[in-house]
């Protein structure tokens, strides 16, 4: 199936052809006609399946249609994303696909000066891509008016809730006109997200092109058991002996990312780290150098890696397993995108066995174990609880740092109750 039967304008089809795309992905072929019809959508798909184009293309088509004379431009569509990197990526997609249209777009996020954003907004925009925190900063300065909004998109909706943006999202919803189209896109699709969406959307169309919380089948997954203190040594060995040239490595903490990057540099492997404590400029430079090949390894935390779109990334390594199993799906979804093959490797010590069981339970499969000769774990080492943040330890009967049911109730209260929700600390604007 080609893009032509989906009902997109000639200008959009031309922009799609410029990018070398001829056939839509499953999420695109299902979502585009529904969005063009004006219906609310709740869409779940694996990462790397073309979700961004799935809502960007029909959004651009709808807004480019004649709607009568307008004296001034106003924000007609708002796309909310959880992180700066994802906001920048979505904004770039809007520009790429909308280059033959007369629509104007802007992106606003934290970590950079607000003044250029204010200037851009004052010139008038049709489509705004934003992170919740910086959006509300603009609202407080009266540089943004959302009273005439026609379409709201929540991208990576599950992660926005996980990052504690409930309070901010409720504030944003209060600024929007009640009559609007709502689109929720999520890389993972939990029951709580569906329940939450039912309280926010108006008779939404459910689109799900893959089993819930599953990794792309084009990604091979392998576990290498190893002692915690030998993980860095094993990682350097794998990169060198297998000649990996582009590797995205995940750590649990910002400090761990910095430490690992420094150690790999000492091993002669060009490495950069990105996390929430890095300036936006440093994060952008690190990602650019990684994409261009001048940096061989990019070490990232989960928050900083959201929205990373790296063409044909061959290798993802979990240096630390995530303590929230859904994050494993997000992580390895950075490779094996758009039908390309990818490899996901996890270095697992005895302390992380419970995390591994939770991940395998979520994805409903056992991950292949492979011992690397010379790096076999010491069977006499006993597991030690891992600090997962906020004074809670894991594994062994720990409290999970995220409580999805409470979050779901909190957002639903944004529509159904005036009872205030307790805000959580934002990790990124």
| CATH class value of the largest domain | Alpha Beta
CATH architectural label of the largest domain:
3-Layer(aba) Sandwich
Helical amount among residues, as a percent range?
25-40%
The CATH topology of the largest domain corresponds to Rossmann fold
Secondary-structure-based class equals alpha/beta
Biggest sheet descriptor: 7 strands, parallel
**Could you list the spans in which at least 5 consecutive residues all have pLDDT below 50?**
390-429
Can I get a quick summary?
By secondary structure, this protein is an alpha/beta fold. Helices cover 38% and strands 16% of the residues.
Structure description:
This protein folds into two domains: 4-208, P-loop containing nucleotide triphosphate hydrolases (Rossmann fold), CATH 3.40.50; 219-394, 3-Layer(aba) Sandwich (Rossmann fold). It is built from 16 helices and 16 strands. The strands form three sheets. Strands 3-4-2-5-6-1-7 form a seven-stranded parallel sheet, with helices on both faces. Strands 10-11-9-12-13-8-14 form a seven-stranded parallel sheet, sandwiched between helices. Strands 15-16 form a two-stranded antiparallel ribbon. It is an alpha/beta fold. Helix content is 38%, strand content 16%. α3 packs across α4 (84-97) and α8 (166-174) packs parallel to α16 (404-416). The longest helix has 14 residues, at 51-64. Mean pLDDT is 84; it is low at 390-429.
């Amino acid at each position: 199936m080609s893009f032509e039967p989906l009902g997109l304008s000639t200008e959009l089809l031309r922009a799609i052809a410029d990018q070398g795309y001829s056939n839509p992905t499953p999420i695109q072929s299902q979502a585009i006609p529904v969005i063009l019809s004006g219906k609310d959508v709740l869409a779940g798909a694996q990462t790397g399946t073309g979700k961004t184009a799935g809502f960007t293309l029909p959004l651009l088509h709808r807004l480019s249609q004649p709607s009568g004379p307008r004296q001034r431009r106003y924000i007609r569509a708002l796309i909310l994303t959880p992180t700066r990197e994802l906001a920048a990526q979505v904004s770039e997609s809007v520009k790429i696909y909308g280059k033959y249209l007369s629509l104007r777009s802007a992106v606003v996020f934290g970590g950079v000066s607000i003044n250029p954003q204010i200037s851009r907004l004052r010139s008038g925009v049709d489509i705004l891509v934003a992170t919740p925190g910086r959006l509300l900063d603009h609202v407080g300065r009266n540089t943004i008016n959302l009273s005439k909004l026609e379409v709201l998109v929540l991208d990576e909706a599950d992660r926005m809730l996980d990052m504690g943006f409930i309070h901010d999202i409720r504030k944003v919803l209060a600024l929007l006109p009640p009559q609007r189209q709502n689109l929720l896109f999520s890389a993972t699709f939990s029951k709580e997200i569906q329940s939450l969406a039912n309280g926010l959307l108006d008779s939404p169309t459910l689109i799900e092109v893959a089993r819930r919380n599953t990794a792309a089948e084009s990604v091979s997954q392998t576990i290498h058991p190893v002692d915690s203190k030998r993980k860095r040594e094993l990682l350097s060995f794998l990169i060198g002996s297998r000649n990996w040239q582009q590797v995205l490595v995940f750590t649990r903490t910002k400090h761990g990312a910095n430490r690992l990057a420094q150690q790999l540099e000492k091993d002669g492997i060009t490495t950069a780290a990105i996390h929430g404590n890095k300036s936006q400029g440093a994060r952008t430079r690190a990602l650019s150098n990684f994409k261009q090949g001048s940096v061989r390894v990019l070490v990232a935390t989960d928050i900083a890696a959201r929205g990373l779109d790296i063409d044909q990334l061959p290798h993802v390594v979990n240096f630390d397993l995530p303590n929230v199993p859904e994050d494993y799906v997000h992580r390895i979804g950075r490779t094996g995108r758009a039908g390309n093959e990818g490899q996901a490797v996890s270095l697992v010590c005895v302390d992380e066995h419970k995390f591994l069981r939770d991940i395998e339970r979520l994805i409903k499969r056992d991950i292949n174990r492979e011992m690397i000769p010379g790096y076999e774990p010491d069977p006499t080492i006993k597991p030690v609880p891992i600090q997962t943040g906020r004074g809670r330890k894991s594994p062994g009967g720990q409290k999970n740092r995220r409580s999805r049911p409470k979050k779901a109730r909190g957002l639903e209260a944004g529509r159904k109750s005036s009872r205030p929700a307790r805000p959580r600390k934002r990790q990124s604007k």
